[in-house]
Predict the structure.
Amino acid sequence: MRRIRAAFAAASIMLAAGLVSCSSAPEPPSITVFAAASLKPAFTEIAERFKTDHPGMAVDFNFAGSSDLATQLTQGAGADVFASANTTQMDKVAQAGLLDGPATPFATNTLVIVTRPGNPEGVRSFADLGRPGLIVVVCQPPVPCGAATRKVADSTGVTLDPLSEESDVTDVLNKVVTGQADAGVVYRTDAINAGDKVDTVEFPQSAEAVNTYPIALISGAPQAGPARAFIDLVTGEAGRKVLDAAGFGKP
């Protein structure tokens, strides 16, 4: 009986040791990419190509409004790569001394209006967004899509009275998709990604507010080598094909 107890105790110790060993297995190496919310579909696809080219390397994304991402970085958040939806937010990060070299422009994007399917409110132009009773959502002014929307509104003299100003373009799109708003101003790429969940209304004034997207390596990046490889993929031929398919223009 004593031998059985001893054997059982030894087996328990070995099992516990095995569990500890399994739980302390090292995490796979990864790069951390801070990217504008509008880049999510394209960058997620590009990341799959990156992981194929770099077996064992993961990509951790933080998708949000570019102004929020710039604030996080300047307040000490760690990242390897930053991809912004305009140069203004990238400049803020650069001025804080956080970039390892100059940023590289890799894409452009333009604004469109999205409505509920069938466009039941008959929105035909940017001026229609100022109609009384129309429920409109836009991005906050500091966010690149909000800054571009404000630029168009100022140039056209259209007064917007939005239901809400969202922190990123994805939230604007979701308000329209879920029926909480009649119309919203988003990027062309967001409208394409939404498919038949929305109707798209283009307006010529969007040409006055084209956003250029830059990407850069963060100074002191923990995974600088793989991060540079990710940037090269985004700015190279393979990345360009994905970005083209998503609706982004060339820089």
